[in-house]
Amino acid sequence: xxxxxxxxxxxxxxxxxxxxxxxxxxxxxxxxxxxxxxxxxxxxxxxxxxxxxxxxxxxxxxxxxxxxxxxxxxxxxxxxxxxxxxxxxxxxxxxxxxxxxxxxxxxxxxxxxxxxxxxxxxxxxxxxxxxxxxxxxxxxxxxxxxxxxxxxxxxxxxxxxxxxxxxxxxxxxxxxxxxxxxxxxxxxxxxxxxxxxxxxxxxxxxxxxxxxxxxxxxxxxxxxxxxxxxxxxxxxxxxxxxxxxxxxxxxxxxxxxxxxxxxxxxxxxxxxxxxxxxxxxxxxxxxxxxxxxxxxxxxxxxxxxxxxxxxxxxxxxxxxxxxxxxxxxxxxxxxxxxxxxxxxxxxxxxxxxxxxxxxxxxxxxxxxxxxxxxxxxxxxxxxxxxxxxxxxxxxxxxxxxxxxxxxxxxxxxxxxxxxxxxxxxxxxxxxxxxxxxxxxxxxxxxxxxxxxxxxxxxxxxxxxxxxxxxxxxxxxxxxxxxxxxxxxxxxxxxxxxxxxxxxxxxxxxxxxxxxxxxxxxxxxxxxxxxxxxxxxxxxxxxxxxxxxxxxxxxxxxxxxxxxxxxxxxxxxxxxxxxxxxxxxxxxxxxxxxxxxxxxxxxxxxxxxxxxxxxxxxxxxxxxxxxxxxxxxxxxxxxxxxxxxxxx
Length: 647
Ligand code: MIC
Ligand code: SF4
Prior knowledge:
By secondary structure, the chain is an alpha/beta fold. It folds into three domains: 3-266, 2-Layer Sandwich (Aconitase, domain 3); 270-417, 2-Layer Sandwich (Aconitase, domain 3); 467-643, Aconitase, domain 4. The chain is 29% helix and 19% strand. It has 22 helices and 27 strands. The strands form five sheets. Strands 14-13-19-18-15-16-17 form a seven-stranded mixed beta sheet, with helices on both faces. A seven-stranded mixed beta sheet has the order 24-23-22-21-25-26-27. Helix 3 links the parallel strand 4 (60-64) and strand 5 (93-95). The radius of gyration is 24 Å and the shape is globular. The two termini are 41 Å apart. The structure holds alpha-methylisocitric acid and iron/sulfur cluster (SF4). Alpha-methylisocitric acid (MIC) binds next to helix 2.
């Protein structure tokens, strides 16, 4: 029974629709809330439309516009209109452009302790700061959850991170999660949900907790969450949502698979060095690093609390002449409160370039650093090229360290700034939901607006019995979805147009990949460990599939990307080190008897035709995943199951 006693177990138990709560087994759970953002959302609603369901069946679904807000052409604006009309038509709340980053706004206005949230964005676990079980998923899984279909997942292992002690001055929540990334690496959370507990929890505000659960995504964890306690109640009261509060705590005897203890008083300001969020060092060790840009914001650190601290530190000072300081507040609530209490003026006076409340530079939507430049960011990802400048170096740090870098021009311990200011949690936030449009009651007549850049989902054929594939890329460990399909202001406006965005697949790792893939009858990718870490973008599975990628043979897969591959009919096969070593780009492989293999075997023979060798790759898939792959993806599978029952 112990699994039911930690917070994760309690929430899963309450939402269980299918299966048993035994770690490693597949279960289906009820999803209370969904969130989508625009860059992944257009596909979600196209997919939802193709399911033929009339109205969402969740307690609350919200559609946010926050990623593609730079309108250099008609594409993004058209997507916004499409999303607004689809939200109205299908019963979804619509958070207008200018209202803020999905995770920040969801925390402020919608998150409910003890409920489940599925979001088409990998940082959805931010809402875990409120004691919600919040998970990122591919868009298709989110559209199915909107249709009331259970979300299928493997019962995860649960790791308790027990927090004791008190954060020293100049050390923040960001340093807690950077410390964990240093200890556990970007693979440390794979297959797990991280639950926080211990006496130090009560000293962490909700935005602090959300910074920590947000970056659990960088650990590869399914989700991360905190208890819901008096601090949670105070936050929800201050958001005028006291009625949404419910306490939730782990019970005596809760059975955790692992326990880690962190003494907060031992932490120091940390920085994640390029090219990965787990290359963490103390800021003290990096004082030689000169800085060209400081960017403050993103869903990791853009709350009122964070930015009020930034304003206090900037008060009366000026950004170093060699540093471009940009600040993107997380939400309209945050910006409006900063404007009213004078903090915004402090930032402007310090020379900060104030950006709109959106993801902005975090996803390469503007503010690319200079070539070879150094950017210090309060964000959560520093993968190469993500900033928009291929050879820029991005360091991730707390707002305190970021301000110190902005004022001095180099990485330095923020103690140089004097006495740390105190920031109290506000007794009440400025609550104004006028930029969130609730869905109308009667929606049948609402027309969906589709601009010329919005193309229908490509149809996928069922899995053939034999595949002849050319290996066009052999990738190293920890390849990210940014490597597979980059963000940035050129590719992002094409998120609703799969044929067009496919041209960007592997753009930096394998030049002309798209062209070469189209010339083959089928393509395979060979990958290392943790293939596809990072974002939830299903485009990183669908666009390669559109180019003919039928199989990825890797040492291991990141959870979200693995699910997306299956959803779009791409075989994720596991290979051992020795076979990985034998494979080279240009190999021709043949996979035969796939129908039998997917129906009843846990291995498939890989014939490397040009090398005259063969070996076995592992099929590690649930029964349902096998059916989905045979059908040619999850949409085909559900169409057969629900929409064309006679099939
Ligand atoms: C990201 O941080 O990489 C993104 C952009 O928010 C993605 C979603 C996307 O690619 O649209 C994510 O984290 O899931
Ligand atoms: Fe937006 Fe960056 Fe957060 Fe992704 S990580 S949701 S791009 S702010």
